[in-house]
């Protein structure tokens, strides 16, 4: 699970982590499902929430690894994410991209979507932190390079690292 603000680098990391894995690896992008498949804005109770859940479940049921990434606001997606975690037989690794607004703007300028939306929209969407109430998320600091982030996630996957879910508001593990 890769969560964070627009322009944080989630898709870049998902693509690179996926390239290191073998076998069936489903990459489920919230933005693709929401914007391209459904042509939907991110709204409470949006259709994308159910379609993301079904897509992830289908891949898991067919023994694929899944990389789910997106902004995935806790207020809108926590119930679905908790259900996915609870129903999944394997480990779930959680990451929050802890990237400043200024850095997300800088990174956004290098993306193809840079002409589709700008700083005003990104400011409206931005959350400094958006903890899930049931998961411990590893912070990915903006100082980490793409390689450092991919190495950390790959290492966590190989080592069996899996933060224990908590019932109180989420704690963050400092990624340093």
Mind explaining what this structure looks like?
- The chain has 176 residues and is of the alpha/beta class.
- It has seven helices and six strands; from the N terminus they run βαβααβαβααβαβ.
- It has a six-stranded parallel sheet with strand order 2-3-1-4-5-6, sandwiched between helices.
- It is globular, with a radius of gyration of 15 Å.
- The relative contact order is 0.20.
The total domain count is: 1
Strand content: 5-15%
Content-based structural category: alpha/beta
- The fourth-level CATH homologous superfamily is P-loop containing nucleotide triphosphate hydrolases
Give me the side-by-side strand order of the main sheet.
2-3-1-4-5-6
N-to-C span: 19 Å
What's the level 1 CATH class?
Answer: Alpha Beta
Please provide the ordered H/E string of secondary-structure elements: EHEHHEHEHHEHE
What's the total number of strands?
6
The CATH architecture can be named as 3-Layer(aba) Sandwich
Shape: globular
CATH topology: Rossmann fold
């Amino acid at each position: 699970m890769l969560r964070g603000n627009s322009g944080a680098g989630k898709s870049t990391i998902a693509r690179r982590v996926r390239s290191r894995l073998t076998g069936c690896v489903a990459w489920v992008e919230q933005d693709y499902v929401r914007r391209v498949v459904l042509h939907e804005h991110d709204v409470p109770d949006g259709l994308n929430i159910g379609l993301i859940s079904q897509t992830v479940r289908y891949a898991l049921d067919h023994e694929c690894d899944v990389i789910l990434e997106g902004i995935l606001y806790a207020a809108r997606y926590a119930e679905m994410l908790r259900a996915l975690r609870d129903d999944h037989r394997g480990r779930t690794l959680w990451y929050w991209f802890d990237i400043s607004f200024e850095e997300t703007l800088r990174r956004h300028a290098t993306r193809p979507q840079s002409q589709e939306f700008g700083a005003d929209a990104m400011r409206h969407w931005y959350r400094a932190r958006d903890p899930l109430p049931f998961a411990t998320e590893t912070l990915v600091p903006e100082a980490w390079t793409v390689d450092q982030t991919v190495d950390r996630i790959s290492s966590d996957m190989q080592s069996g690292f899996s933060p224990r879910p908590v019932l109180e508001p989420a704690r963050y593990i400092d990624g340093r």
